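Sequence and structure are no longer studied apart. To make this concrete, we show below a single chain and its fold as tokens.
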Amino acid sequence: MRAISCFLGAVGVMMSAAVAAWAQSPECAAQSAPCHVADRIGMAGIDSMADLEAFIGRLRAAAGSDDHAALAATVRYPLTIYENGTAVRTYADSAALLADFGAVFTPGVTRAIIASDADTLFVNDEGAMMGNGEVWIDGWSGTIGIKAINP
């Protein structure tokens, strides 16, 4: 059993390295060179910087105006909420999220959204991170949405 576990772990590492190499430009792959967000967004399933910038603009406007319905519309459901790395709640749809809105879109989450800029996001194969990990977004079938919130 231990050999199988080690083999699967090695396969996972090789696959992660292959995905990372595929998704990065040659300049990005060089450890000494800075890497622009546009060179990494494909890893998060996001098609273009223009799409990312438009999404973040809508998200920031909704957060800045405290537009609950507009924020709920940016979420990819089901939405899982994490606290200290542990899943604590899942919302199946916008109605469930809106009923508990203040517990999800806390002041810290809202600040992270408003302060976000497409050019400075941390991006990996898990998605694009806003703030210090309060919000994670990714692309799926041509649509960008919030995939996880860590209030």
Q: What stands out?
A: DSSP finds seven helices and six strands in the chain. The domain at 36-149 is CATH 3.10.450 (Nuclear Transport Factor 2; Chain: A,). The chain has one domain: 36-149. The longest strand covers residues 75-83.
